[in-house]
Amino acid sequence: MKDSARNALPPIQYADVQWRKAHEHKTTVPSPEWNYESQFVEIDGNHIHFVESGDLSGDPILFIHGAPTWSYLWRNVMPYVENRGRCISMDLLGFGKSDKPVDHEYGYFNHVEIVRKFIEKLDLKNITFVIHDWGFNYAMEYIVDHEENVKGACFSEALMLPRYPIDDTEAYGKECPGVLDMYRTMHSDMGEFIAIEQNLFVERVMQEHIYRLMTQEEMMMYRAPFFNTEERAPILQMPRDVPLDGEPADIRTSYEKYNNWLRAENKTVPTLHVFATPGAVNTPEDAEWMCNNLKNHESAWIGTGIHYIQEDNPEGYGRSLHDWMRRNNL
Question: CA of 196: how far to CAs of 179, 189, 202, 209, 288, in Å?
Fold first, then answer.
């Protein structure tokens, strides 16, 4: 291949480790084991759960989940970068082992504030973010406002350009009718019933958006935080917060804020997008678009996966993350 043609290719990386010698390449299957000691920090009278591992004296690598997951999502990814710094995985308020006050307003900007206050409470400096799903949104508010405290950001299945915000639901409905129907349903009484009474996101959405078959041990770990129906409101609120046709306007403004930051010409913070095929929120076509339009950015393909790609291929995710951190001296 000529150099000019090679340079024209988007910087998509592939989680292919065949160059390693056989004794250096140990392929693993996802483990259900949860071998982390729980810790808690108090924020506004509520206890926020987190775990940490790796080099506790190193710079922090902060992992943030989406819905309906918790820090358990990262259990098989964190070990790959424990030699790069202090790995911290937090549970958002209302999720995992964090408190779940039933009278709390679990809105978009409430989660944004929890992330900010968590970082300030632990006095985290020089942070590398690893963020997924709605965890991406909440972290991006901090990243854009505190760029001087951010070393890098890795994200997956993120609500961002080129698909988000959804300003034209008619056009989006033709492309992704099922997703749009889901967002609209969540605003109805039926949405409240299936999300809270039937626990739809844990019992159905998760399994349908993981390519492999989850074990009962793993599913019980995801069910555990939401055994009580009165504590499931945070799951319902997240899809309700997705702006459609410009509303809610303040959340749409947040989307535009971080989208502008990601494609700014003077963006210096390196970013990595980890994606799989076929994906759900982000497709391979989206990954290529990002490589062609975002500054100081790479995308890493890790094979087959849908939405919860940490469960489909944690090894590919972890190796891609480690390689990107190594090359960017993070």
Answer: 19, 10, 10, 19, 37
